[in-house]
Amino acid sequence: MGETGKMMVRRPRTARGERTRRTLLDAAALEFGTLGFQGASISGITRRAGTALGSFYTYFESKDEIFRALVNDMSAQVRGTIGPKILAAPDRLTGELAGLTAFIEFVREHQELYRIVDEAEFVDQDSYRGHYRRTVDGYLTSLTEAAERGEVRSDISEVHAWAIVGMNVFLGLRYGVWSDEEAPADVAAQAFALLRDGLKPQSG
Amino acid sequence: MGETGKMMVRRPRTARGERTRRTLLDAAALEFGTLGFQGASISGITRRAGTALGSFYTYFESKDEIFRALVNDMSAQVRGTIGPKILAAPDRLTGELAGLTAFIEFVREHQELYRIVDEAEFVDQDSYRGHYRRTVDGYLTSLTEAAERGEVRSDISEVHAWAIVGMNVFLGLRYGVWSDEEAPADVAAQAFALLRDGLKPQSG
């Protein structure tokens, strides 16, 4: 899950192996997030992870491969953080408010997210597009189901899913990465009022 | 206009000079759009422009400077293309539909736009942020004025402007850069219905 078809996936078979892989990915997030793809190195990643260089090659073949795995991993982390918040809400519409609040909070705690995903546009287009396609697919599926339950407008389309994802990505950039002065819940509440009721003049 | 405060601006004083500068910027859009910032060269730009190397230095000091000027120029081109379409509409709300249609069409004709603006995040943060800040500022100003005329919801905020710009940027990426199968007017109409009326179940 969360891996592209092209990638040879070597998942660790033990819990300890899984932990080492996790440590390497977290170290890679810091390394790529701080130095960018060009500046990052495998030795820098293993130094941050406190693992031997040999360990790295047990899990990843190259800097390219761990970068791809990292984009997929961060993408899955975002969906794994936001998805449950949306599902826990009483309905899909208010779930959007909870999801956006959680997303802005996630971005503040993972400042490297944008730099890594955005650099993927240049380093590995497949990972870049894959991240957004999976995010939008998830949105479209849950919005379509919500439409069938009458919780959101009935004509939900892929265009709508892209529009909402774009809205959230830009709010995360502006209020998560560029500044942390505004309370995430306040930002999300303003955006949610627009998303729920629309831009037209509101009666009453 | 369209230049950052930090940049030394040497604008040509003659129409012919203005044309040469324009030719160099258009050539730079192709060069950076095709090869990226690292791969691009001043000689590649002058070759595409059909100008002497000396001409380049009449207008720009370095590859960095023409890149910054190009981001500002493309940013101004986007606003100069979309703004009038929004203003020509009978009201600000339907202007949004015209503006988004025009934006998707613009992106299809300027495939290099995203690559250049997105690379600015890594090459020159000031240009990157400046582009989005100016775009959002323009949106916020015109939406606030429209709110005073009663054409859109009365509580327009910066958050709303960021949300709408994000929506448009992602729709431009998906339906302008990644694919050109869908008619821009159809994509814009679907997004506009969501933006105007909101995600909530629609009555009637």
Automatic annotation (TrEMBL), chains A, B:
Residues 41-60 bind DNA. Residues 18-78 form the HTH tetR-type domain. The keyword Transcription regulation applies. The keyword Transcription applies. It comes from the Bacteria. Keywords: DNA-binding, Transcription, Transcription regulation. Pfam families: TetR_N. This is TetR/AcrR family transcriptional regulator.
